[in-house]
Amino acid sequence: MSDLETLEQEILDAVRAAQDVRALDQVRVTALGKKGKVSALMRALGGMTPEERKTMGPIYNQLKDRVADAIAARRQEIEEAELDARLARERIDVTLPVRPEPVGSVHPVSQVTEEIIEIFAEMGFAVAEGPDIEDDWHNFTALNMGPEHPARQMHDTFYLAPDEAGGRKVLRTHTSPVQIRTMMAGKPPFKVIAPGRTYRSDSDATHTPMFHQVEALMVDETTHMGHLKGCIEEFCKAFFEVSEVRMRFRPSYFPFTEPSAEVDIACTFKGDEIVLGEGDDWMEIMGCGMVNPRVFENAGVDSTRYQGFAFGAGIDRLAMLKYGIPDLRQFFESDLRWLRHYGFAALDIPTLATRGVR
Fold first, then answer.
1. Where are the domains of the chain?
2. Quick one: CA dihedral 155, 151, 149, 248, positive or negative?
3. 108-355: what CATH class?
4. What mean pLDDT is predicted for residues 180-186?
5. Exposure of 260 by Cβ count < 10 A (0-12 exposed, 13-18 middle, 19+ buried)?
């Protein structure tokens, strides 16, 4: 056996003996690498005569090709064997029962918001939306809040950094700016609700820096306080799922309504529970009133021809009252245990039909 045959046999034996890709790469480097044995033979061609190169060149190239082919074939064998072993090791028994997966819950705020929208939709109200970041005019001035109104103060309102002109935008303190934008964008009549996030610098068991409100606006040529009372009464009966509800309207003051009132509903305290709609105690639930003519003028509505009512309530507070949630701050703590307790199933879609209210 010649030296070339011996070298080829040694290399092929090493290729067959390699048990993994790493060992095979070591054989490849030893044979075909820059300092490999076959590579050394190829470099030796430079010192041969033309006749010797003509004879030995093809022999060395054929040796190199056979070694390279053997390494490639062995690599494929190793990779296929490793894949078979992995598939056998990671096999899944599809006959096993499905593992229980965590089930998500709908947040009470989202659920109550959908309930409110559903109720007002039955009354013919559309949903209006607006930006969370408002300018001073929409959030305060257009709503008849003067320059010295307490709500403008830093301790109540989140102000953003001044712009180039020195103006400062705010995180809206209520959803009333949506009413202004709605009236400015169209022509009466209007019949909308505006649910959404609002922001005020306050935090305790019944207040958070970010909370949710819903406000309603109805404007036409004939609307009066009686319509306002009837609308709120129908909403309370549908939302709290009671057939009758006792209410009282206490005179109050809001710069954007005149006259204005606070709305209380009758309730009874039974231990840790509150029964709403009847009883000798009272629970405040919202503020309301007839839209101030100055607000109409600011929004471009003829106050000599049109009139209307507006009212607003905290969605979080309504959720607390209906579902017995004691602390508003827990709404925003992202505690999964709390959400599993107070949350709703994804398909528990609120409809008036399911409550039997029409």
1. 3-89, 108-355
2. negative
3. alpha beta
4. 95
5. buried
